[in-house]
Every structure is written in structure tokens, then in C-alpha cells.
Known about the structure:
Blueprint: H1 10-37, H2 58-64, H3 68-99, H4 105-114, H5 124-133, H6 140-164, H7 168-176, H8 181-192, H9 194-210, H10 213-218, H11 227-231, H12 242-262, H13 264-271
Helix pairs in contact: 1-12, 2-12, 3-6, 3-9, 6-9, 7-8, 9-13
Amino acid sequence: xxxxxxxxxxxxxxxxxxxxxxxxxxxxxxxxxxxxxxxxxxxxxxxxxxxxxxxxxxxxxxxxxxxxxxxxxxxxxxxxxxxxxxxxxxxxxxxxxxxxxxxxxxxxxxxxxxxxxxxxxxxxxxxxxxxxxxxxxxxxxxxxxxxxxxxxxxxxxxxxxxxxxxxxxxxxxxxxxxxxxxxxxxxxxxxxxxxxxxxxxxxxxxxxxxxxxxxxxxxxxxxxxxxxxxxxxxxxxxxxxxxxxxxxxxxxxxxxxxxxxxxxxxxxxxxxxxxxx
Length: 277
């Protein structure tokens, strides 16, 4: 028997066309960024969309003509360290909040949510003065602590919602079999809550990776600044090195795009935790 070919309905075709058009509009700036990163220096002001020849050496020279290597190392340490610190604090707090019905639980969650209302820019003067007195300016630990603190509220909320969706009877059965509270958390709750953990990890990591204002204010030595601030060094007082600026931008977004592509399913699962009862 020959299978009938499915014909697309006009409505489906229109929706698909609009979706592809919107996707192309969103991807166009990224395409322009990659093309500009491959332009030779003498073709930066040419009116054509594509250069006459591609200068792949821009991605090599950008490392030797700047402190981009040190900036990338600082960003990796800051993003990784702040993610681990935020997760180490948020996981016990979320577990206790989700499992223990103590007095003031709602006020605690509300207080955690209120901390999200404070933008880093409004606290920069106080943070700068505090870390200056502690002699911690130009330190990786300073950026790790600040990024972890500003992402802690989101991690607590997403982990609380996911752990609360896990049946408590599974932990009770594990504790009847001889496991303690910590053992049940490690062997039962954590494997089941892994999508929520991954969601908290990826959002904290991306937020710390893309942070600019605190890195610019709390780090004044070029080699100790994060990648977002290091890329900004290609913008001079009178000239802008557009090819190096966009080459550094491409280098900066590639790790995050690859990381998100691998764990996209876990992120979606974590964000929808608790939406279905």
C-alpha cells in the first residue's frame, strides 16, 4: 500500500514561513558579526556585504595583540566558581524550604525574591568601597562572590520548585531502608532533580559569563578583567578595531552556545517543573 503524502495546510505553511522569517531576522546580526570578524582591516569600510577575501588570521592575531587569553581564563574561573558557589548555597536552602514546613517559609521565599529587585549597578558604589577596604579589588574571588550572590535567588527558586515536585514518599522509603536525610538527598533527590540543577547551573553560568558592569568596576588591571571587559578594549578613543572586536565576540559566544545546545532539554524540563500537578 502506498502511503498518502501529507499536504501542508495553508495555516501551517504561513506559520512556518513566519517562523523562518523571524529566525532569519534574529540570526542576521550574528551572521554580520561573523562576516565582520573575517574582514581584512583595509576592507572594513567597504560598502559590500561580503569581503573580497576572508582574513582568517583575525582569529589568531586577536590573541597576540591583546590580553584576550587572560580575559578568557578569568571568565572561565569566575563563571565556573560563581556557579559552584551559588549551587552549594542554593541546594541546601531549596531542599530545606521544599521539605520542611517551618514558620516564615513564605516570607523567606519572598525575601529571596526581593533580592532580585536590586540591580548590580545600584550597588556598585557600596560594593567597590567594601572590597576596596578588604583589599580585594582585581581579585577573581571578588567577582565570584558577587556573581554568585546576584544569581542565588534564581537558583533557590528554581530548585525549590523542582524538589517540591518530587514525591516525599520516595525519600521516606529510602530512609526506611536505612538511609539518612543526607543519603536520601544524595541518592534519591539529586538524581531526580538533575534537570532543575542543570537549569540553575546553566543560567548562573551564562549570567556570570555575560556580566560586564561589575567586572569593569571591580577589576581595573586589563589582565584580571573578564572577557566582556577585555573585548571592550578594542574600542579606542579615536578608532575601533571592528575585525578584532567581532572576532573576540564570536569567541565569547561559542562556548555558551555549545553548552546550551547540549543541555537544552534539561533546561526546558527544569523551567516547567511544577507546572503540572
